Amino acid sequence: MPLMEHLRELRNRLLIAIAAVAVGVVVGWIVFGPVWELLREPYCSTVQSRQLTGHCSLTYNGIFSSFFITLKVSLMVGLVVSSPVWLYQIWAFVTPALYRTEKRYTLTFLALAIPLFVLGATVSYLIMDTALTFLLGFSLEDTVATISIDDYLDYVLIMLVIFGVSFELPLLLAFLNIIGVVSHATIAKHRRLVIFLMFVFGAVITPGGDPLSMMALATPMIILFLAAELFMYLREKRQPQSEFAGLSDDEASPLTHDDTPLEEDSGSGR
């Protein structure tokens, strides 16, 4: 396909994806109330949420703050609702350049990536109330927590995205093994270091840095990492070993000692 045809196709698919997201934003605007109640539930379960007015309350600054909060939540809902459409548009644009096996692997990984992201986001939501209780528990005496809607929503979105993306890392590891970048032997050799780095990653990447969030992020990642390592081991075990697999890069390959000439002149009688 000529370059201009590629650009036209990209433009058309972008327009379809943007239109789908716009429709999703409208849906998010309509269902904003129930979604907002779901998002603020972890905060409302803490004691500090009722210190200011006696019931669960968040503050906001500025005349347009509530409007932009509604728009931000609606956009988040719109991206989730329209994800089948814009993911398909990405897939349809890329798939002509893929081989049959690459298409199969891509579909498999896409089918696994979405549930893993949802699983990570669900785990973050389930532990969010306990994490908030732990973090707000350090409040000084005679102080009142006045958490703004912007700060709280940013915290929620960051937690959801971080957990969702982190649960994709073992899947990325399995993909790198399939394309030959990482071998099981390399992963097995550095297993302890990888597990330690996952705990460090959990402590650094979570917004609050509390032990509960770190453990809630690192533990499932380790389980998924071990599952990915098992997949790599079984996959490499099923593949036939090459006769040169045991040789190092600097070792010469075995040579034949057959003295038969490479080419014989059939007309010479020799």
Which percent bin holds the helix content? 55-70%
Quote the distance from N terminus to C terminus. Answer: 55 Å
Major pleated sheet: none
Annotation field: number of helices: 10
Instruction: Give the DSSP E fraction (strand runs of 2 or more residues).
Output: under 5%
Arithmetic mean pLDDT: 80
Number of strands: 0
What is the global morphology? flat
Commentary on this structure:
It is built from ten helices and no strands. The longest helix is centred in the middle third of the chain and has 37 residues, at 100-136. The protein is an all-alpha fold and 270 residues long. The radius of gyration is 27 Å and the shape is flat. It has helices at residues 3-30, 32-44, 65-81, 83-94, 100-136, 149-166, 169-178, 184-189, 191-205, 211-238. The chain is 68% helix and 0% strand.
Task: Show the helix and strand layout.
Blueprint: H1 3-30, H2 32-44, H3 65-81, H4 83-94, H5 100-136, H6 149-166, H7 169-178, H8 184-189, H9 191-205, H10 211-238
Jot down its keywords.
270 residues; mainly alpha; 10 helices; flat
Task: Describe, in short, the structure shown.
The protein has 270 residues and is mostly helical. Helix content is 68%, strand content 0%. The model has no long low-confidence stretch (mean pLDDT 80).
